Amino acid sequence: MPMDTTRIEAGAVTFTLHYRALMPDQGVCIQVMGQASGAEKELLRFDCFDQAPHYHYAPLEKNERRDMDKTTAGNPVGWTLRQLRTRLPEMLEHAGYGDVASGLDRDLVSSKLDEVEEAARTMAIKQRRIVIHNRGDQVIEAGNVRFGLEFRETGNDRGVAVHVLTDFLGQEIELLAFDCFERGPHYHYGPRNQDVRIYWDKTLVPDTLSWTLEQFKVGKLPDMIERAGYPTVAAAIDRELVAAKLAHEVEPSALALRAANAK
Q1: Number of folded domains in the chain?
Q2: Range of the domain at 155
Q3: What is the pLDDT of residues 138-151, one digit of tens each?
């Protein structure tokens, strides 16, 4: 269990909470712990993730996983708290822990769930993983978006970085980032939003910079910006202008930057 875990005792069960930042997802993890077969066990787990929220019955035993429907469930933390307040005994029964279910003090659990909710909602805001990059050494304007280019050296990795930027609510923000590194190349949807981070398979995509430029050239940029969480920016893109800027400025500059730093 992570060191920054919050534990809230509620009689027959204990609620534990911690923040999980995975690749490419992240969110609050809420566990229901209890005594089973003489030891504390994880009875239920709710992974309240941004992209693929889900929950588990008896994670360490039968590990029955069910997905939350983001369309109908709404906020995963809110949905989870509703289930814990109204269906906890039934869920414990289904997980195979009827003895724990029968030993619940419902009033105590109800009062402790208020603490769980406060802790979970605070954790969801304050522990969110985001990343703030530089805007690039060369910035190329293309209507309502701009492309920032730079050669990054970080730790034991290096490569061309392509930043897609815009002005949003009075400040410049990064919509997408493509770190075309030599060892661990990856890209980000909404680095300052949900920061969905995807690593390329270098076996399938050996030239990640060319792959990035190709997505722009075939018209994937608006779709990617929309997935990053900025649909109004995506809808306002001037596709012809972007195509011209890519052909005459962005692509030649990015390839020249890589060539100038080749070992």
Answers
A1: 2
A2: 138-260
A3: 999 999 999 999 99
